[in-house]
């Protein structure tokens, strides 16, 4: 059964526009990745190139050189399908099973402790951010004439 065609409103973008935004976003992300890899290699930065590229992209987003709308669609798509990128890694781990057999406790401990530390630090950072946002909202809602100093 065919769906009836709907009229497009002026603000609605078509499939071609959506595809162009996706291609543009992936192009921008790949450009930052490439610049990060080259910078890491040429400047002998002791960080992986993809991390340098992400830091440069973050800097571009924070400073406004790159607009979120440019990369939002592509990054959402890539994050949504992230598990596909881990399949080669998971398959590659099978070739190192003898290493896991030699030191199972140290590997298991690192696999448990490291993610827990990441979650704890991330949670604390998010809580701090939300607390600051709430304080800003509270300060903005108090009328100018009614502000008092708390001692």
| Main sheet record | none
Secondary-structure element pattern, one letter each: HHHHHH
Characterize the overall form: extended
The helix-and-strand class reads: mainly alpha
Question: How much of the sequence is in beta strands?
Answer: under 5%
Distance between the termini: 70 Å
Q: From the alpha-carbon coordinates, what is the Rg to the nearest angstrom?
A: 23 Å
Helix content: over 70%
**Mean pLDDT across all residues, rounded?**
84
Total helix count? Answer: 6
The number of E-state strands comes to: 0
Low-confidence stretches: none
Summarize the structure.
With 151 residues, the chain is an all-alpha fold. Helix 1 crosses helix 2 and helix 1 crosses helix 3.
Describe this structure in words.
With 151 residues, this protein is mostly helical. It contains 6 helices and no strands. The protein has helices spanning 15-42, 49-63, 68-80, 83-93, 97-102, 104-141.
Descriptive terms for the model:
mainly alpha, 6 helices
């Amino acid at each position: 059964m065919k769906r009836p065609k709907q009229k497009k409103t002026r603000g609605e973008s078509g499939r071609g526009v959506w595809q162009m935004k996706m291609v543009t976003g992936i192009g921008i992300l790949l450009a930052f990745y490439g610049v990060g890899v080259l910078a890491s290699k040429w400047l002998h930065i002791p960080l992986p190139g993809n991390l340098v590229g992400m830091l440069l992209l973050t800097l571009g987003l924070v400073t406004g050189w790159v607009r979120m709308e440019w990369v939002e669609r592509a990054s959402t798509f890539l994050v949504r399908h992230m598990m596909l990128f881990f399949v080669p890694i998971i398959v590659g781990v099978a070739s190192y099973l003898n290493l896991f057999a030699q030191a199972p406790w140290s590997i298991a401990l690192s696999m448990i402790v490291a993610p827990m530390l990441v979650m704890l630090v991330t949670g604390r950072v998010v809580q701090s951010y939300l607390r600051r946002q709430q304080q800003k909202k509270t300060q903005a809602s108090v009328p100018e004439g009614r502000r008092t100093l708390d001692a």
